[in-house]
Design a protein that fits this description.
The complex is a heterodimer. By secondary structure, chain A is of the alpha+beta class. Chain A contains nine helices and seven strands, in the order ββαβββββαααααααα. By secondary structure, chain B is mainly α. Classes of the chains: A alpha+beta, B mainly alpha.
Chain lengths: 233, 118
């Protein structure tokens, strides 16, 4: 079986604006979008730029818009798309560096803003900090985020508002706020209560649909909103 | 880089929007049940409705309906507008227009509801 990858291309050094280029590839059962792109780069066009690393939906590098929906190229099988023409575009809401490679810096800057690390204010003991299974279960879903950026790329608020923290950063904040071992809840809630924080989410569930790890960032954002409300009341 | 530490992100407006939506739903269902099932059914007439609307309890209910409806609706418009308006001066203009509209709607509505006589 054959399929056509219609890739949106842009090289800032020589192109004035983006254009589409078609590549025909061979498809077998199980062939992923990433397999197709590697096939193109290896056999047809060595100038095509895209990120990839693990090829098993763990590193989050190969997120892109596949038929206008954000997802991982390594996790999306071509036959599942039921279409022989597949459009591949860089993640929406991010600035393009070249072809399918986008600038992830603003995304990671927002992640850093919510303090994505454990804060322990009390003096450290000489052994590990214990956590019960119930306490861990609260974070079990949120810790599986691979920071691919698909959720933020499918959020209209994220496209429009350059300051909006976005579902990934808010999910990370939720992950630490709910962690029984963390001691910086107040600081983190103050950060996500920013005018560009949790209350700008419009609950349209695009991020939930886009997440390749089946995480629910909207639920996390709502939980943070409720926590802030309870504190204020 | 924007500094994320401002402590008022709009939690009360967010809560009021949900609370007003919930109360409006209750009021709407009450209104439907009273108007179409218990009061007159198929023989609904101006006299029947006017008699009900003129009572103090219904004046309170209708005023609540009006205030919450205007808040919920116009706040919703502002929420959507604020997603797409970037310029600060334009935000001020839109908020002012929405507040004026709210004022007009509330004045007209309350002037109709409160002094109403059957």
């Amino acid at each position: 079986m054959k399929a056509i990858l219609r890739v949106k291309r842009f090289d800032p050094e020589k192109d004035r604006k983006a254009y589409s280029q078609d590549y025909e590839i061979g498809v077998q059962e199980g062939t992923t979008i990433l397999d197709g792109l590697l096939q193109v780069r290896g056999e047809q066009d060595g100038t095509l730029a895209f990120r990839r690393s693990c090829r098993s939906a763990i590193c989050g590098s190969c997120a892109m818009m596949i038929n206008k929906v954000a997802g991982l190229a390594c996790y999306t099988q071509i036959q599942e798309l039921r279409s022989q023409l597949i459009t591949l575009e860089p993640l929406q809401g991010y600035s393009v560096i070249r072809d399918l490679v986008v600038d992830m810096e603003p995304f990671f800057a927002k992640l850093k803003a919510v303090m994505p690390y454990m804060v322990h204010k009390t003096p450290p003991s000489d052994r590990e900090v214990p956590q019960s299974q119930e306490e861990h279960r609260l974070l079990a879903e949120a810790v599986t985020c691979i920071l691919c950026g698909s959720c933020s790329a499918s959020c209209p608020r994220y496209w429009h508002d350059e300051n909006y923290l976005g579902p990934a950063a808010l999910l990370k904040a939720y992950r630490f706020v709910l962690d029984s071992r963390d001691e910086a809840e107040e600081e983190r809630l103050a950060i996500v209560n920013d005018p560009s924080g949790v209350f700008r989410c419009r609950k349209i569930f695009n991020c939930v649909e886009a997440c390749p790890k089946k995480i629910n960032p909207t639920e996390a954002i709502t939980a943070l909103s409720r926590k802030i409300l309870t504190k204020k009341l | 880089m924007h500094k994320y530490s401002y402590k008022n992100g709009g939690v009360f407006i967010w809560f009021l929007q949900r609370f007003s939506g919930f109360v409006l739903l209750g009021l709407l269902l009450t209104h439907m049940l009273v108007e179409h099932f218990t009061l007159g059914g198929h023989e609904l007439s101006y006299e029947l409705v006017a008699k009900r609307v003129a009572t103090p309890l219904w004046k309170i209910i209708d005023s609540l309906f009006l205030v919450l409806g205007v808040f919920h609706g116009l706040n919703g418009v502002w929420m959507i507008a604020s997603d797409y308006i970037k310029k600060d001066w334009l935000k001020v203009v839109v908020v002012s227009l929405l507040l004026c509209l709210a004022g007009i709607l509330l004045t007209l509505g309350l002037l109709t509801v409160i002094p109403f006589k059957a």
